[in-house]
Design goal:
8 strands, 292 residues, 13 helices, 18% strand, Rossmann fold, eight-stranded mixed β-sheet, globular
């Protein structure tokens, strides 16, 4: 009887250990003290299965949230931990660390008036800090970036401006606007969403100022050579019913004109978590192949 009980307990203990080792570890809230932003910035972390039991260093993906969301959105709504666990178990992606910073509504760039230098924070403070804290392989070939909507825009901005830092970028439903769309944007939408970045109260062509062109995805691509753009591998995914479809299609065309190798996906769907949940595994798999 005692032997049977011991075997049962041992089996239960072994099952528990094996199950825990098949799941990644979630850290929902951590903070980086920023001298640039003069405040603490929250971030979330996904550590792959076995992280606590190994001594190895891992590649990293910075996963960016959308407008009005925060650092836990990819956990809460995107269930990225569940998708990553399955993809790692299946061998679809290599074990990787996923870092999700909070960016509020900054669009991941520096504002025109210097009041919010989020881009400087991310590049100069955030990446160096978290890559010292966790066992991350701090080299370009082991660092990827991805994100949705505003985070898709941030993904492109960082990959285009800092190609020496990232091997691959996977923007989903990226917030890309043409000059025409910017000029026609309703005043309330402009002043609320983009005015803090480029200047409130601007109308029509006034919006096409230096700050705008310095951070316009299409403008940046137009100024770079194909060789410069090919330093990063791109995975672009946007739904056929997404209100941002036009900008993403223009991105695809602009890259084709420059002979930039990239993957462009248009699937059935709109600007929704259902779309991003069904696309995140392919995005991470694309980045994972770049690590090799």
């Amino acid at each position: 009887m005692r032997k049977s009980l011991f075997v049962a307990v041992l089996a239960m203990f072994t099952t528990t250990i094996l199950y825990s080792q098949s799941q990644g570890k979630i850290i929902e809230q951590n903070t980086v003290e920023s001298k640039i932003l003069k405040r603490d910035v929250k971030y979330s972390v996904y550590l792959p299965p076995g992280y606590d039991y190994s001594e190895r260093n891992y590649p990293v993906v910075y996963l960016l949230h959308g407008y009005t969301d925060d650092n836990i959105a990819w956990f809460q709504f995107g269930e990225v931990d569940r998708y990553a666990d399955k993809a790692i178990a299946d061998g679809t992606i290599p074990p990787m660390i996923i870092i999700m910073p909070n960016a509020d509504s900054s669009w991941y760039i520096n504002s025109y008036d210097g009041k919010e230098d989020y881009e400087d924070f991310f590049i100069k403070e955030f990446i160096p800090t978290v890559e010292k804290k966790y066992r991350i392989r701090s080299a370009k070939r082991f660092r990827g970036i991805a994100g949705l909507s505003m985070g898709g825009y941030g993904t492109l901005i960082y990959a285009l401006k800092y190609p020496e830092l990232f091997t691959a970028a996977a923007p989903l439903s990226a917030g890309i606007f043409s000059d025409e769309e910017i000029q026609m944007m309703p005043d309330m939408e402009w002043n609320t969403m983009l005015g803090p970045l480029y200047g409130k109260g601007l109308k029509g062509k006034e919006r096409l100022n230096k700050a705008w062109y310095d951070n316009s995805i299409l403008s940046i691509i137009n100024k770079k050579t194909g060789a410069e753009l090919n330093k990063v591998r791109y995975w672009i995914d946007c739904g056929d019913d997404d209100f941002l479809f036009n900008g993403n299609a223009l991105l695809h065309i602009a890259l084709r004109k420059k002979l930039v190798r990239h993957e462009y996906r248009v699937r059935d769907g709109n600007h929704s978590w259902e779309y991003w949940r069904t696309g995140i595994t392919d995005a991470l798999a694309f980045i994972g192949k770049s690590f090799h």
